[in-house]
Amino acid sequence: MNLLKGKKGIVFGALNDMSIAWKTAEACHAQGAELVLTNAPVAMRMGAIQELAKKCGDAPIIPADATSVEDLEALFEGAMEHFGGKIDFVLHSIGMSPNVRKGKHYTDLKYPWLQQTLDVSAISLHKTLQVAMKLDAINQWGSVVGLSYIAAQRTFPDYGDMADAKSLLESIARSFGYHYGTAKQVRVNTISQSPTVTTAGSGVKGFDEFVAYAESMSPLGNASGEACADYCVSLFSDLTRYVTMQNLFHDGGFSNTGVSMEVISKFAKDSADGTEA
Description:
Oligomer: single chain
Shape: globular
Strand content: 5-15%
Order of helices and strands: EHEHHHEHHEHEHHEH
Distance between the termini: 58 Å
CATH superfamily: NAD(P)-binding Rossmann-like Domain
Strand order of the largest sheet: 2-1-3-4-5-6
Radius of gyration: 19 Å
Number of helices: 10
Helix content: 40-55%
CATH architecture: 3-Layer(aba) Sandwich
Structural class: alpha/beta
Number of strands: 6
């Protein structure tokens, strides 16, 4: 449909073909966008981003640690040099928690690791936006999207300090969205996606069980990574020019469902089985 024809964007965080960022890059390219891909140097050694670059019209890859202002400056300057002008959209798909990775309980966090979690998973969005604004790197009516999760609003025991990071991410999107919108009409939003099978998500304890639970709670079922990519495309397009400072739930209705009949039926069955026993 060429929804992004003529638009130019930066996609952060594509690790492999399980990544939402990877799927979003493919969807943006299919809709006519030109791309620059980026990830932290250490993550790039683990992934297959060169393969994605070929799929996206030989898109250039500019390594950048999103916690480094200097790296981000080099990224935006390099992207503008490649495109011959400003950028229209940015996807922030970055999240990492050493505490979750190492199995630390939320009540027994290592605080240096917590600081790293917040810096990588949330403050990096502020740094990205601040650098872009100072360099005047994003076109008027441009769009920035960060990927979030409902643990920012509700407690999920095994999500650990990533919940705090997502809460901060959403706050930054609201606060910076006001200032960027006032100054340059650039819109900033977050998408709260269904639990999705990715390299990062699958590292959370009990993840597979929770995916099944969310599926049974969501009237439309869990939203796939491909569907999330399509939603990102819509937010990068001109069809959503007046949507900003929002946390947008893309979760098949999970966020507004108190309980589903499928879950009730399961508990009724378990109760009946227990009574018979």
